[in-house]
């Protein structure tokens, strides 16, 4: 009888311990379901509304994922590099923004499946024919080249005038001195542009000898002036006819700092100015501080669309040329215990009609 009571007592104690262990486990599980989410300001994927609540395409996606996973979360905003570092150190569980999946980043953090595919694009300021004409005629290189040309033409004309004015009535036939000086200038222009006159047009030996020497000089001179003007005018044309990344090498280019865009331009040896955010980058282009900017196509189109609604960026256009493709994913801690669950939820959301409607809402130009 005593043994039966003892066994019963042990059984009750064991059950109590088991129940307490289960309850503690449940309590710990519930305590650990709040995930730490890091964000990075990148309209239209992440931005603050007027009440300082986080909104955007990526936040909408994360809201749906958290509902499917049935988890709570807290949010902290970072700069891009700080967000990636926080994920690498395990200070956050998930990074939510417009973060490109790249091999370099994969060495330090993990990513979810891609939730948005895009590409880098070039944006320029669209100018009319009048602006193009004004830009060309105000080109400093053009006026410098013309100044050098007229200086040389006057010098050549003056040289022959002093050698031939008393002996050559054919070249200097005007009755007045002013007229003969005008003929000297015309002679210099024609000599430089059309090459030397007939050797026997000149009466003095000095003029004939210099004719040969200046003839060689004029050929090189005209070729140099032509090259300078062609390069300058071609550069002006490129400002309105950029077709790819290689056309950017001779322009003033802008990009957002610490992004894959800046890395791409550096890899192509394209010097560029960097700006801390997209707004300042677009303002720089609109003000003429740079000739072209390179950034994510979706972000460019959204920001320009928002600007036009506020009567800004009216002349900015995104060119229809795709540069490097980009895939955006959620940033995860390496070997995250939530990775599989997040990916399942993400794929489930991407297949819904609601998700496609959200994409149209953000990116369809009105």
TrEMBL record:
A GO cellular-component term linked to this record: membrane
Keywords, sorted A to Z: Glycoprotein, Ion channel, Ion transport, Membrane, Receptor, Transmembrane, Transmembrane helix, Transport
Listed Pfam families: Lig_chan (PF00060), SBP_bac_3 (PF00497)
Domain Solute-binding protein family 3/N-terminal: 34-366
Lineage: superkingdom: Bacteria
Subcellular location: Membrane
GO molecular function annotation: ligand-gated monoatomic ion channel activity
InterPro entries per record: Ionotropic_Glu_rcpt, Iontro_rcpt_C, Solute-binding_3/MltF_N
SUPFAM superfamilies referenced in this protein's UniProt entry, alphabetically: Periplasmic binding protein-like II
Topology of this chain in the membrane: Multi-pass membrane protein
Main location (coarse class): membrane
Transmembrane parts of this sequence: 7-26, 142-163, 184-200, 206-230
Designated name of the protein: Transporter substrate-binding domain-containing protein
């Amino acid at each position: 009888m005593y043994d039966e009571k003892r066994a019963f007592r042990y059984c009750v104690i064991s059950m109590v311990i088991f129940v307490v262990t289960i309850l503690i486990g449940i309590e710990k599980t519930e305590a650990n379901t709040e995930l730490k989410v890091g964000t990075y300001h990148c309209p239209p994927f992440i931005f603050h509304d007027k009440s300082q609540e986080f909104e955007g395409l990526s936040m909408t996606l994360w809201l749906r994922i958290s509902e499917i996973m049935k988890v709570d979360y807290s949010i902290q905003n970072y700069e891009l590099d700080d967000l990636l570092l926080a994920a690498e150190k395990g200070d956050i569980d998930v990074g939510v923004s417009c973060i490109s999946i790249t091999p370099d980043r994969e060495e330090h953090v993990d990513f979810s499946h891609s939730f948005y595919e895009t590409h880098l694009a070039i944006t320029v300021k669209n100018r009319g024919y009048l602006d193009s004409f004004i830009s060309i005629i105000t080109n400093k290189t053009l006026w410098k080249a013309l100044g050098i040309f007229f200086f040389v033409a006057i010098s050549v004309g003056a040289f022959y005038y002093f050698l031939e004015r008393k002996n050559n009535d054919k070249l200097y036939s005007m009755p007045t001195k002013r007229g003969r000086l005008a003929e000297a200038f015309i002679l210099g222009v024609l000599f430089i542009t059309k090459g030397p006159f007939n050797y026997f047009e000149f009466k003095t030996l000095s003029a004939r000898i210099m004719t040969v020497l200046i003839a060689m000089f004029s050929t090189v001179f005209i070729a140099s002036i032509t090259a300078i003007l062609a390069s300058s005018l071609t550069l002006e044309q490129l400002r309105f006819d950029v077709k790819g990344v290689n056309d950017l090498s001779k322009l003033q280019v802008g990009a957002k700092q610490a992004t894959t865009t800046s890395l791409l331009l550096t890899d192509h040896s394209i010097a560029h100015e960097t700006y801390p955010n997209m707004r300042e980058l677009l303002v720089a282009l609109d003000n003429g501080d740079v000739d072209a900017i390179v950034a994510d196509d979706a972000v460019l189109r959204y920001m320009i669309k928002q600007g036009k609604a506020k009567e800004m960026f009216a002349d900015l256009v995104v060119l229809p040329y795709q540069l490097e493709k980009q895939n955006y994913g959620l940033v995860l801690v390496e070997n995250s215990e939530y990775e599989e669950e997040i990916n399942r939820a993400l794929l489930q959301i991407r297949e819904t009609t609601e998700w496609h409607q959200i994409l149209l809402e953000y990116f369809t130009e009105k």
